[in-house]
Amino acid sequence: MAPISSLTSPSIKSATAATAALILSGSIIMYQRQFIKAAYCRCRGIEGILRYIWIGDYLPPNIREAMNKLDKVDERMKEEEMQLDEIEILIERVELESVDGPISDLHQNNSNVEEASRSGKEDELKKQLFQQYPELRTKIALFSNRLDTLASTIDSVNSHQDMEIKTRKKKLSNKIVAMMSCLDNKMMSLGVRL
């Protein structure tokens, strides 16, 4: 019976419990290593993790302000994408109506749009197009103005030498350029340069 009592002594129980706790915590850490690594990177290191625990936000205030401005621009970009879709639909409707409608008269006078632009008739085509569809001119002007405003907002955001902010600014700027290029291409399909 002596061996059984020596195994149940309080010092052995506490040592066994400590060892089990150490093994269990080590196993959990090994299992959660990828999660911990991702959180470390996402929270920008140990300083960000401590800031997150203490303040509730892992970003410094100046970087958080810049990120919030870019978030607002990103939301407005989604609205502008919907506006671009509306303009594209309107342009497609103009193209369909121009086959049989009043714009076709100008196209019939010239064999194609390239000849119209070479012979100086492009301005007449543009004038006629916007006279017949004034909402197109208005929507394009407002759309272009809003994109310019968004671009200036993006440019005004200070990156504070932060790579994530720089990357987001670059992506949003490229998105604006792509949207304007899309609009230009649609207008060129009508034979009109903006």
Describe the protein's architecture and organization.
The protein contains ten helices and no strands. The chain is elongated, with a radius of gyration of 32 Å. About 6% of the residues have low confidence. α3 crosses α4, α5 packs parallel to α10 and α9 packs antiparallel against α10. It is mostly helical and 194 residues long.
Q: Nutshell version of this structure?
A:
This protein has helices spanning about 1-5, 10-30, 35-40, 45-55, 60-100, 105-110, 115-120, 120-130, 135-155, 165-190.
How are the elements arranged and paired?
Blueprint: H1 2-7, H2 10-31, H3 33-42, H4 45-54, H5 61-100, H6 103-109, H7 113-118, H8 122-132, H9 134-156, H10 163-189
Helix pairs in contact: 3-4, 5-9, 5-10, 8-9, 9-10
Q: How much helix, percentage-wise, in residues?
A: over 70%
Overall radius of gyration: 32 Å
What structural class is derived from the secondary structure elements?
Answer: mainly alpha
- Beta-strand percentage? under 5%
- What is the succession of H and E elements? HHHHHHHHHH
Note the main sheet: none
End-to-end Cα distance, whole Å, is 99 Å
- For the secondary structure, the number of strands is 0
The tally of helices reads: 10
Low-confidence segments: 103-113
Oligomeric assembly: single chain
Mean pLDDT: 79
Task: Give the overall shape.
Answer: elongated
